[in-house]
Amino acid sequence: MFNFFKINKSNISESQSETIEGTSPEIPKPHYVSDIMEDEKGKFYIIKYWGKQERKTHVKGILKGKYRGQFEGENTISKFYNIEIYDSELFNVEKLEEVPPYDEIKKFPEKNLPEKISTCIKKGSDYYHISIHHSQFTERRNISQKLQQTDGKESFGVIEGEIFGFIADEENIEIEEKIYIKEPEICIPTKIPTGKTEFLHSRFRKEYWCECKTKTYWGNWEELALIKTNIRTGEKEYKGKYYREQYWYKDKKGKYWGNWKYRNNNYQENVGCGTVLGIIFWTILIIIFFPYLIYFLPFIILGLIIRFFRPLMQFLLPIISILFFIIFISSILRTFQSPKTAVNIPKVKDEPTEIRTIEKVKDSQNPTYNDSLITHFRKWKDYSKNEYEGKYSIKARDLKYSHQYKNNLPESDYGYFIHSLKENDKNYITGIYQLFDNLRKQKKLNNLQFAEMIVSFVQDIPYSLVLDKNCDPTLYKEQFIKEYFKSPNANCDPNQRNGINSPVEFLANLKGDCDTRTLLLYTLLDHYNYDVLLLSSNFYSHSIIAINLPIDGQKFNYFGKKYIVWETTDFIPPGIIPIETANQNKWKITLKSNNYGNQ
User: Fold this and answer.
1) What is the mean pLDDT of the chain?
2) Within 13 Å, how many C-alpha atoms sit on residue 478's CB side?
């Protein structure tokens, strides 16, 4: 079948056809924009859009045309004419499955052929208008002797022969382009707030985006509209016989001190929460120990006797005191040694341990196809000792597909390789999304707490080397690998392409080193719309993440924005990085999300 533009039976003129084909198409809009990556040339992202591409359909046919020739010379056998075909007809057109051998065809000068060689072919009830490009008139041609005429040095007649060429049309294809990013020298300020605000005493200022959305700037300092309240902060100051109390401004935008007041002898401070709690504490203490007060009663009676009979008692006092002391000690000992009523102590139920199970399930869409679910129960804590637990599942079929996809990826730069893994796997880890969504709802976590929960989930997984060859330290030059295998707790996942596990593989086997962990975390945080970077360092042979969150600590600067760095191979809070790996010039951005942190 020919892939040509269909025309109506009512002929369209060639001039109209040229106008239609020559219309400028609209600028294509990308339907896919990748994360920002980096290679040796700089930072870039990939866009994909639907566009047009020329398609060549090679054909052959029979050309029959009228010619005129100009006499150029003769020998004893023949006369020679420079032939020009000025009118032609094309028929018996056939589609070729292979490209014809144009270079081997004895060429007839293309300039001596008609400017356009075209025809209409019929298929069913439809007509197709075709034009032959790059026409090659072969040596298989002849001139009709009956129709040939000679007039002086000119010759006229009809020529017929085999012709090759191609028909050009367009097809819709997905076009992929790599766009390199250059930091703009001038970025026009806007009044679009980033959501960040700084406070200094009674002043504040807001941060705004520049037009390029890669830079930010701080606005001017403004005075807060402070309204005094009578709400005490609990702070007080004393100076001699004077005191003053501290109060909150409205909405707790600041604090202020009240007036100095005189402390007279009858001065009593207002009873606060501490005083009330003290009274309650001593009351409870007296109630609890009231039964033991009887042991102090003899001493109270002895004090009264001594007071009224002081002369008589000065001789008996030492003896009586010793006797009472012995009785007191004996009573206390008998109390603690006496049998107590048995109390039923409830048994403490063991907390569930982290387990991995595999169970067979049926595919609802294809009942004849059986699959298995790899389910992990995980339990971990964040940096504030908050506990989280739950289950997630990975389909065995998705695990197999992810592994095959990784092994079949073409050789390319590291950034594009891990970006491809992330894009492929992000829709196959819905089980972990469901777990995190449920925990976020149950615990009522804000954006920072939610990010800490996700990162601590990965940090809690024991470290394991992922290697592209066997788990034999002699196969590797890296000193870190050799030292790691000396540890009795060394763990290894061998024969993984490029020494990395994809997000699906890591969630299935829980074996991952730095780049495997950062890839999973980048995939998760990007899914939840965090503004996140994946940083890599060939110098340090390490990988970490950095995230745009209001956290104090070590930060990575990217086009004027500050990203807090986050280690993934140990249980370390954000913003902490060892001094030996803290040189920003040794790190590069391998992936960057397209999010602006609007969760």
Assistant:
1) 77
2) 12
